[in-house]
Specification:
The structure holds two protein chains of two kinds. Chain A is about 35% helix and about 15% strand. By secondary structure, chain A is an alpha/beta fold. Chain A is built from 14 helices and 14 strands. Chain B is built from nine helices and nine strands. Chain B has one domain: Rossmann fold (3-Layer(aba) Sandwich). Helix content of chain B is about 35%, strand content about 25%. By secondary structure, chain B is of the alpha/beta class. The chains are: A alpha/beta, B alpha/beta. Chains A and B meet through α2, α11, α12 and α13 of A and α2, α3, α4, α5 and α7 of B. Chain B: It comes from Monodelphis domestica (Gray short-tailed opossum).
Chain lengths: ~475, ~270
């Protein structure tokens, strides 16, 4: 049976220019094996890896030549032969820290940094996909979610790539929140609860119920093997944890020394540079599987701040009919291609509230996988609404991808609000005073959000049909 | 393929219609399940399929196809399926060496047409004259989806030209079918997309339109499917007949039912 390495060699010789495919072949072959292993009904992640170890080698022999498709489903296991030759058994499989397979269809997921948001997104962010955050008006809460994503990457030991046109990425990393440890977390939660109980009876949280269960966290910095951590926003991450992280930085004013008129591939100059930078990091660090010698697979977390803003040289936020209307959408398309063929997850914040042309907003959404919009109440008329008095803003899950399946894990609740307590960011379903179930329950109840308590009960009795 | 949808459309893999242009659109929801349906339908009907996938990777369609009973890898190996993966080609065009066949060269240039893409389709579907043993029923072109081309800077007129060329070759000359997906964004001001959709709607003989429910999100009914048949050859009888069904998507199939008669309600 030919070894994995030998096969990789022939692929390289015959298609030397398409070096990308080499890794992709093996990876895609593994993917189909994984998919089949999953259908066997294995529930334990360790069983996945065991079955794939047996199936992976077989597939490597048979499917490597034929399957030229690249898949973003980089599965956890790499047969040991990829590292050192010999395609037989004894393959040692290592899982990537900070990832887990999805319960629904076995995809590899990473945490977005907020366990509540992970649950809304169907368990986490799939590897190889793009999370688009539509910024709130003053970019307060979206930058917080951005930082949660990066902090989660550091705690899990992933490699980061931070790109910004506004702040130096080094400064962004200095402001990351500190991970919470077990006993500290209980204290924070109790403070929050006692605060609330003075005002009104405690609302049982449907979404954030996990906050009531204490997580088992390992103390101290270093790679944590848990999925999803909690962070204390009022404190900064310690210096030694940040220093221990591996990260790449792209700060636009430093990269562009002169605005040359050369525009390759009809993209904005800044976007072109960023794409080349990302592609270089992916290929040099081996995130696309092109370097089979690399024993430990890792995830690349890409964070791009305020894409589409005028600081990137784009004018879709400035004009009704922008001149470079297609720059950002082309960028997103190429980025999608890069993500799909590598072990990476990307978060992008876009100031959508500044984009006048709604067509561009919908095109941007169609080109992203997961789209989350934040709407803060600061300065808006909703601040006075009694329904929203406990919250700081609304969170809209606009889109969740259907990856490798016909269905996606959409949560039932659509009325979600967030609030930033003194230390923790929570997402909750908006509870009206008298509702006990989601709005649609066999069409018999009417949504009575804006009425107050006793009137609610009275009217419901009349209108039940 | 979804057997219930076959019943609604009155087709079966044994006797599919020929020479038709089917337009798939979705509004406020994801119409991707229709693409999976047609892909597996035509593969089961033993047709030669050229699939231009611009937005998702090959393994996405493969894994769903396995749930629907077709094996895309095997189909590609035996030559029944020609798969064009837009994302992969884009990365190769931009970051690979310059000698790549520039099927997607409009990515690089700011104003270009889709001629190279059409030539790719033509080469894939025209039967080669070297007497290959297996003969397929008729060629089918499947595009997912055309709205992405507008996002990439191609003009709507160029996309319409591309579809016109493809229809002339595939539908009229080779007596095959063309199926294309377009996102409808009537809530927003995307005029190019609206123009594209209207023009394609007039050229098509069958329009399948997946819409979200007007009343909002519901767990048991995922959306509504409008089936419009346009009788192009019968000017006197009614031009369009339209049927509306609601559907719920499950892991391996989609169930259709009449409006208001969801199994959750009955």
């Amino acid at each position: 049976m030919e070894s994995q390495q030998g096969e990789g060699g022939t692929e390289l010789d015959s298609q030397s220019s398409i070096w990308v495919n080499t890794g992709g072949n093996k990876m895609a072959a593994l993917t189909t094996g994984f998919g089949r292993a999953r259908q066997g009904g294995a529930g334990d992640p360790r069983e996945y890896k065991a079955e794939t170890a047996a199936g992976g080698d077989k597939l490597g022999g048979g499917g490597g030549g034929g399957d030229r498709g690249c898949s973003f489903l980089r599965k956890v296991s790499v047969p040991g032969s990829g590292g050192g030759g010999g395609g037989g058994g004894g393959a040692r499989l290592r899982s990537i820290a900070g990832t887990r397979p999805s319960v629904q269809n076995g995809q590899l997921l990473v945490s977005a940094g907020l366990p509540a948001l992970d649950q809304l997104l169907g368990g986490g962010l799939a590897v190889g996909t793009l999370l688009l955050i539509e910024e709130d008006k003053y970019n307060i809460y979206s930058s917080l979610i951005f930082k949660y994503f990066l902090a989660e990457g550091i705690v899990c030991g992933h490699t980061l790539l931070v790109a910004s046109a506004k702040e130096d990425p080094g400064d962004i990393l200095q402001e990351l929140p500190e991970p919470l440890h077990d006993d500290n977390y209980k204290k924070v939660l109790d403070e929050g609860r006692s605060h609330k109980s003075q005002e009104e009876p405690e609302i049982s949280m449907k979404i954030a119920w996990r906050y009531q269960n204490l997580p088992q966290m390992e103390a101290g910095p270093g790679t944590s093997s848990r999925f999803g951590h909690y962070y204390d926003v009022s404190k900064r991450m310690s210096q030694e944890v940040i220093q221990s992280a591996k990260w790449h930085k792209f700060f636009l004013p430093e990269e562009i020394t002169s605005y040359a008129n050369v525009e390759s591939c009809a993209l904005n100059h800044g976007y072109t540079k960023l794409l080349h930078f990302i592609q270089r990091v992916i290929s040099e660090q081996g995130f696309d599987g092109s370097n089979p010698q690399k024993k430990q697979k890792n995830i690349l977390r890409i964070g791009i701040q305020s894409l589409g803003s005028p600081l990137w040289g784009d004018d879709i936020c400035c004009a009704d009919t922008p001149e470079h209307m297609h720059s950002l959408t082309r960028f997103l398309y190429v980025l999608r291609g890069l993500l799909r063929m590598s072990l990476s997850a990307c978060i992008i914040t876009v100031p959508s509230h500044l984009i006048q042309n709604k067509a561009v907003t919908s095109r941007i959404r169609n080109l992203s996988d997961t789209v989350v919009g934040l709407e803060s109440f600061i300065g808006s008329e909703k601040e006075a609404n009694s329904l929203y008095k406990d919250y700081h803003g609304l969170i809209h899950i606009h889109q969740i991808p259907r990856l490798n399946s016909l269905i996606c894990d959409v949560s039932d609740t659509k009325d979600l609000a967030f609030k930033l307590q003194r230390k923790v960011f929570t997402i909750e379903e908006i509870k009206t005073s008298n509702s006990q179930s989601p709005i649609f329950s066999h069409g018999y109840h009417i949504a009575l959000c804006s009425l107050c308590g006793p009137l609610n009960k009275f009217i419901k009795r009349i209108f039940v049909f | 393929m979804f057997p219930e949808l076959n019943n609604l459309l009155n087709v079966s893999p044994d006797k599919p219609e020929q020479g038709k242009f089917t337009l798939l659109c979705d509004a406020k929801t994801d119409g991707g399940f229709l693409v999976h349906h047609f892909l597996s339908f035509y593969l089961k009907a033993n047709c030669k399929v050229c699939f231009v996938a611009l937005l998702q990777s090959f393994s996405h369609y493969n894994i769903v196809g396995q749930k629907l009973g077709v094996n895309l890898i095997a189909a590609r190996d035996r030559g029944q399926l020609v798969f064009f993966e837009g994302l992969k080609s884009t990365v190769e065009v931009l970051f690979g060496s310059k000698e790549q066949p520039n099927t997607l060269k409009f990515i690089r240039e700011s104003s270009s047409d889709l001629k190279s893409l059409y030539e790719f389709v033509q080469k894939a579907l025209t039967p080669s004259g070297d007497g290959s043993a297996t003969s397929w029923k008729f060629p089918v072109l499947l595009v997912d989806d055309l709205s992405v081309l507008l996002s990439l800077g191609v003009e709507a007129v160029a996309v319409l030209d591309f579809i016109q060329y493809c229809r002339a070759t595939v539908c009229c000359q080779l007596k095959g079918n063309v199926v294309a997906l377009v996102h409808d964004s009537d809530q927003t001001e995307d005029e190019e997309n609206a123009m594209l959709m209207n023009a394609l709607g007039h050229q098509s003989s069958l329009i399948l339109r997946a819409e979200g429910l007007v009343t909002g999100f519901c767990k048991d009914v995922h959306g509504q499917l409008k089936i419009l048949r346009r009788g192009l050859l019968q000017p006197k009888s009614e031009q369009t007949r339209s049927l509306i069904y609601q559907y719920k998507i499950q892991d391996k199939s989609v169930t259709f039912f009449a409006r208001g008669l969801s199994p959750a309600v009955l």
